[in-house]
Amino acid sequence: MMRKPVIAANWKMHKTIKEAENFAAEFPYEPDLCEQVDVVIFPPYTALFAVSEALKGTGIKLGAQNMHPDEKGAFTGEISPLMLKDAGCSCVILGHSERRHIFSESDEYINRKVKAAFRHGLKPFLCVGETLDERQAGLTQEVCKRQLSGSLAGLNADEIAAMVIAYEPVWAIGTGVNATSEDAEKSIAFIRGYLGEKYGAEAAGQVRIQYGGSVKPSNIGEYIRCENIDGALVGGASLEIDSFYSLVQGALQLAVYA
Predict the structure, then answer these.
(1) Which residues contact 195 (CB under 8 A, 6 or more apart)?
(2) Is 168 a catalytic residue?
(3) 254: which DSSP letter?
(4) Residue 227, CB half-sphere, CA atoms under 13 Å: how many?
(5) Distance CA 141, CA 236 (A)
(6) Catalytic annotation on 185?
(7) Model's pTM, two decimal places?
(8) 102: which residues sit within 8 A by CB, 6+ positions away?
(9) Dist CA 66 CA 252 (whole Å)
(10) Going from the N-terminus, what domains does the chain have, and what CATH number goes with each?
């Protein structure tokens, strides 16, 4: 099954409003680009509305890097799904390793966010992946299975098919050390197989699963040529226009010639 590649830019805590707006306005847009590849930009909260305005008419999607599961309430410093929709978002990253490990978010809490995203028409980009210690202990599949089971509890097959999952080994994020395409394919094939067992072959065949972790223009091709890898969630290499454009072009060429 040919799934539409998705290349996503996770800017994390980078870019002022003006810097983000300039990036969105200057990114080389091509009329058929988003027909072949889903391109998503995840700026910091402060820049969401400005980037939304700059992206109008391009087909490039806007997402947020996180959100609170509730619509409103006394949650100082948090952002609700309604606020993200109001700012122009159609996607949201949930369960990123930095949220899991630095901010101690549990699978159960992430599950609440995933369900909230679907309630409000936001496409979840759910991140899963193991630490270096877990990898060295041979626990990669066990960790991914646990995170998927907890984070996706209560979802149906249609929701699984509609979301994006990002396999991001923690030891490869921002370190310059990337998993080999063989290792990434093995883990992502496991994830797809697990989803098939839980939600059926059709949903597992439709859900798009990205690789993330020190992805750059020089190695994007080896990942997206793998049978089960449907794109990349990109950190540092997404901060410069030329670099991110090269990543999108790598996915575009695969989509066109597949």
Answers:
(1) 148, 160, 203, 204, 207
(2) yes
(3) H
(4) 9
(5) 26
(6) no
(7) 0.95
(8) none
(9) 27
(10) 6-257 (3.20.20.70)
Predicted confidence (pLDDT) at residue 257 exceeds the cutoff of 60 = no
CB of 186 within 8 A of CB of 177?
A: no
Q: Please, are residues 3 and 206 in contact by the beta-carbon 8 Å criterion?
A: yes
Six-digit token string for 103? 């901010």
Residue identified by tokens 């066109």 is 256
The model's pLDDT over 192-239, given as tens digits with 9 standing for 90+, comes to 999 999 999 999 999 999 999 889 999 999 999 999 999 999 999 999
pLDDT tens, position by position, 6-16: 999 999 999 99
pLDDT at position 1: 60
Residue with tokens 């066990």: 142
Residue among 98, 105, 168, 185 flagged as catalytic: 168
User: Residue 253: its pLDDT value, please?
Assistant: 76
What value does the mean pLDDT take over residues 21-49? 93
DSSP code string of 37-61: SEEEEE--GGGHHHHHHHHTTT--E
Round to whole Å and give the CA distance between 118 and 155.
10
Burial bucket for residue 111 (CB in 10 Å: 0-12, 13-18, 19+): buried
Start-end of H helices in 37-180: 48-55, 81-87, 97-101, 107-119, 132-136, 140-151, 157-162
Q: How confident is the model at residue 171 (pLDDT cuts 50, 70, 90)?
A: confident
Which residue shows structure tokens 């690789």? 211
Query: Rounded to the nearest 10 degrees, how much is the dihedral formed by the CA atoms of 203, 204, 206, 211?
Result: 140
Both structure tokens of 220: 């994007």
Q: Which of 21, 96, 159, 185 is catalytic?
A: 96
